[in-house]
Amino acid sequence: MTQKTALVCGAGGFIGGHLVKRLKSEGFWVRGVDLKFNEHADTEADDFVIGDLREQSVVRSVVDRRFDEVYQLAADMGGAGYIFTGENDANVMHNSATINLNVLDACHKRNIKRVFYSSSACMYPEHNQLDPDNPNCAEDSAYPANPDSEYGWEKLFSERLYLAYNRNHGMECRVARYHNIFGPEGTWEGGKEKAPAALCRKVALAEDGSNIEVWGDGLQTRSFLYVDECVEGTTRLLRSEFEGPVNIGSEEMISINDLAKMVIAISGKDITINNIPGPEGVRGRNSDNRLIAERLNWAPEQPLKTGMEKTFGWISGEIARRHNQKAA
């Protein structure tokens, strides 16, 4: 039996690193490509190429054969402090769109059919996410389009790009809209980290009896999906006959203040919350999992607290390890 092969674009990133591990556990030969290695874990890829997917020559060199599965996760992205300030809009749109144009066309020319594209819940209309208690993120609510950020507009454009290649070139691309993926071995400092990691870091570093800062009034709501369930949904979708777009996210909605309280409780510390002005995105967002349950007969089920306990434990360990290295 011939060994199956997979290409993971963005393999040096958080989700990409976990996806490589999953594919290796299934017996795939895996090539990863990214601008950098993952700084939190050694790659398990059989071949890892350091390269810039904005460059056509790089893309041609990594898409040098027919892969059974291609996962396109590479993008210029980050948390609210990176996406919603407006200062990075040109880079976000240019870099991500160029990567998608290059990777998709190279796959088409190599006659690769199955390509997964990771879109984002940021493409949903802002006007459907003004009520923190009742956001509408059903897949068919995407139009009339009105994303709250240029990041969301680029994601929406690229969704249409992949589905156009399906129609015009007979490809079998699959599109998922990720909702706030979190877990160990992800970015937790530096400005591109997302809320779960940022709160874990703040609480881990805080002294007992002190406070942590939370952007906005903290009443904005989100749902967060643990990375293992994200990888499960991703592989299921690519191997299915459903092209999407479909949400891959949790339906367990929580306010940012309550998420912070959850992390504080996990830590066992006595810490208060100080709400300060800062970028916060839409007021409410939650995954709607009716379509994925219907078409894939699957939806994520792990409680948020379980994933947050694992993530806090990992980030606390990373902070302690760094402290010990400095003390040595």
UniProtKB/TrEMBL annotation:
Signal peptide location: none
Key words of the record: NAD, Oxidoreductase
EC number assigned by the record: 1.1.1.266
Superkingdom to which the source organism belongs: Bacteria
Pfam family, one: Epimerase
Lineage, highest ranks first: Bacteria, Pseudomonadati, Pseudomonadota, Alphaproteobacteria, Rhodobacterales
Domain NAD-dependent epimerase/dehydratase: residue ranges: 6-249
Organism of provenance: Cognatishimia activa
Name listed for the protein in its UniProt record: dTDP-4-dehydro-6-deoxyglucose reductase
Entries under InterPro entries matching the protein: Epimerase_deHydtase, NAD(P)-bd_dom_sf
SUPFAM superfamilies (UniProt xref): NAD(P)-binding Rossmann-fold domains
Record GO terms (molecular function): dTDP-4-dehydro-6-deoxyglucose reductase activity
